[in-house]
Amino acid sequence: MKYASFTNLPASTKLPAHSVDGGRAVPTDIGRGRLAALLVLAASTEFLLVTLAAYFAAVLYHRLTLVYSPHPAQYVQESLLIGTLELLVSAALRQHSQIQTQPRHIFLWGGAGCVFLVFSFFISTIFVLKISDDHSRTIVMLQAGSVLLTVLCTRAICFSVLRRAIASGLIDARRVILIGEPGHCLQFSARAMGAGIRTIRSFDFPQVRADLSVSARPSTVRMAPDVRQLAANCRPLRADDIVILISDTEVPSALALASALSDLPVDVHAVPVGSIDLMAVSRITQFGNMATMQIFQCPLAPFNRAIKRGFDVAAAIAGLIVISPLFVIVPLAIKLDSPGPVLFRQTRHGYNNEPIRVLKFRSMSVMEDGDSFRPVVRHDPRVTRLGRLLRRTNIDELPQLFNVLVGDMSIVGPRPHATSQNELFAELISSFSRRHNVKPGITGWAQVNGYRGDTDTLEKMQRRVEHDLYYIDNWSLLLDLKIIIMTLFSRKAYWNAY
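RE: above sequence
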């Protein structure tokens, strides 16, 4: 059997228990020890900071509101209980141990859920024990807020530190052995490295003889010498996973080889070599009584849609109240500046490509819609004097808060385009219509990154679509809040506004 090893060692060499990365050996025990130490340090630091946050939230409330200092030991036991509960819940849910396989926002949402469970249990406990009279509701709320902020900040820092440590090779993440052709192994290894998964050895696909007779079980394997040698060479490497990269001709032998490797204490995976890119964007899911490869999924689950809709309604109502004077001043200014209606209604594509009527304060001397629409360009003579100011400050978009209230739009989402633009670019950009898998927004991720205004080249629209699809695939309420803040204070949000 041939071996394609990244360490250029001969096939007969029995490797010691260490991992190899770019010709630089890092002992497995040391790499694993560093990872375990970092996770223990992260959990311990979180426990300490949560305890301090709960304690000082109560003390500061007394100092600033009640104008006296409590006894130093008054809130020590309570704060230690909160810190201990947070540590136990995190450990029970294995939140820190799963940090290697989770994106940042999932790790942070897990921390927020942990804090919710902790204070639910804490409040229930003091209620059942009838000691709630000794605990101010305001103090408990302040403690919950300070603990939540502490957990989110601590975990964000921990996540960044861990990713840098994995990237620099200071600690081991998951270590994988690849079985397949050298070219396929190199391709898979390069992609896996981006997720912090290290390839420590690769082997050619061995000759496996599977017993396919009717009387035999599907996993029955006649262990050939090269298969036994492969298992023997994999055992001392102490990998976490073995990935079998199978071609079309090797599919019948993949199950037999996997069965032979099941003697090792590792997870065994199989990946079709022609589907590595497909597998990278897919996940195995349960569909009835079958398992399917889910390539794309609806961007927002029903629960997330409900959260986003509730936030949209609350934000739209609050926004209309705050800016209500503008709905008196701006219409008067428009009437004085140029003849024509105050509001401009334009047909655009909304959720699921359904047409919606978008409201704007009129900023032009024309009312173009449908096929007659022409995008605005710099120094466009159709824009009125007041319209330039309205467009530059985004005030012309404010009536779309009513579109949000009726459910046609969202506060944050891909900006809606005129129908003629959509029809044009949908033929040129294959994934263009995916923008309409969520409701369009008054502001969006593309806009706050400077991709707004004229789209006179295909590249400009492609960059805008890329940012819109990133938003759709990575939606979270925190991302919505970030975009709203950037819309208000970032200069990029006002680039190309003319």
